[in-house]
Write a structure and sequence with these properties.
Layout (H helix, E strand, L loop, with lengths): L1 E9 L5 H9 L9 E6 L13 E7 L2 H9 L1 H10 L3 E10 L2
Antiparallel strand pairs: 1-3, 1-4, 2-3
Helix pairs in contact: 1-3
Length: about 100
């Protein structure tokens, strides 16, 4: 299984709902076996406001992750979120 984790932050905090709604489109993508969109609670003093949202997805294999990224909802989410975010940091790893 591939785990896909992406961190986002808003350039302007007034755009948090727009970003959340854009990221939520990813939940309609049929290629993830599990997908969550979460808001950072900002309780870690070291990270401060560096991350506002986390996308966590699980995929059966590399092909499923590639299909997820090729699906139109992935591009739809990018089109909405990209203008309002500063940070996007992603990591993929094979779950043991």
């Amino acid at each position: 299984m591939i785990r896909h984790i992406v961190f986002f932050n808003a350039r302007d905090k007034s755009d948090l709902e727009t970003i959340y709604n854009g990221l939520s489109l990813l939940k309609t993508n049929p290629h993830a076996t599990h997908l969550e969109i979460g808001r950072n609670n900002h309780v870690d003093e070291l990270s401060g406001d560096a991350v506002d949202f986390v996308v966590y997805g699980e995929f059966s294999d590399d092909a499923a992750l590639a299909a997820y990224k090729a699906h139109h909802t992935y591009q739809d989410a990018i089109d909405i979120v990209r203008p309002f975010r500063d940070l996007r940091m992603a990591a993929d790893f094979i779950a043991a």
